[in-house]
Amino acid sequence: MIFNKFKVSQVLMLGVVNVLLLLVVNDQITETLERAYLDFKKQETQNAAYMSKAFIERTIEEGEQLGTPQMELENQVIDYLSKSHFKDLYVWANDDLAVARVHVKPEVIGSFQRSYIRHTKALEGKDIIFETLDNINPVTENINPVTENIEQKVNAIVFIDKWGWIIGYGSYLYESDISKLKNSIMIWLGLLIVLLDLVSLALIFKLSIRNPKPVL
User: Fold this and answer.
1) 186 partner at 20 to 30 Å CA-CA among 17, 41, 48, 164?
2) Is the pTM of this model over 0.70?
3) Rounded mean pLDDT of 141-146?
């Protein structure tokens, strides 16, 4: 087998291309996964928010027809919402006085919520809004009640017109979930690149054997 500078340069070029390809693909995969993960979380929280809004509006309508006191209806709604936590999907509800009526943390219930005014203004003329809280802003809203860590979160928020209540469903975006999925994709991609490299190297050295450089 005869090696020459041209073949060596081909091998080196193949290595450089592999590194550049992995760097570009890594960024693209990360961006794509983060966007898809956020869209999934938005859809998840939106479904829960719409379902709860429909239940609350139906409860209010039926209660008014039966002459049920609002306090009793509120208790029914609070009981329903309190049971609608699903894994990392958390619900909260603020009444028309901006007082928390439902929250994953019991100590928050009954306290004034400054976010009420911001949310009511944002909801004007809209059925639903989404609010994404960055994990770089250490605010109480952004601390995961389970892990106690500051993590990125997306909220789907709706307004109950008859009562003036704000209902929100929040879900945390775990970087570990994205990392695990990205690592799996990168491993399979790496194996594919190695396979293609072996084929390329076989072709390079096969050509070297068939067409050796003439010795002068």
Assistant:
1) 41
2) no
3) 59
